[in-house]
TrEMBL record:
GO terms for molecular function: 5S rRNA binding; structural constituent of ribosome. The keyword Ubl conjugation does not apply. One of its GO terms (biological process) is translation. This is one of the proteins that bind and probably mediate the attachment of the 5S RNA into the large ribosomal subunit, where it forms part of the central protuberance. GO terms for cellular component: cytosolic large ribosomal subunit; membrane. It is found in: Membrane. It comes from the Bacteria. Residues 30-117 form the Longin domain. This is Large ribosomal subunit protein uL18. The gene is rplR. It holds the Pfam family Ribosomal_L18p.
Amino acid sequence: MALSKTERRQRIKNRIRKIVSGTENRPRLAVFRSNKEIYAQLIDDNTGATIAAASSRDKDISAKGNKTEIAAHVGKAIAEKALKAGIEKITFDRGGYLYHGRVKSLAEGAREGGLKF
């Protein structure tokens, strides 16, 4: 029997998380994508703390445009919050999603905002 879509994504996510982890100096940018929204967090895996977070539900992010354009705004917002916290370098965790579409747009927005990964 074939895996369901969520089971397949969970396996890919676990495979990625074996390799990718965040530290205080270089936190992990974790992405979660639902059908309507997109969320991004900077996580220090040593302490288990979230350093900064941004999502398409935030009031300061304009909800104009399609979902890909909104994801780019979220990427710029998380980059702005990271730079305020003194973070320039991160590791990117795509969360089991393909690096395509909204996930790619968020990553490119974060790079435009000044993050390096």
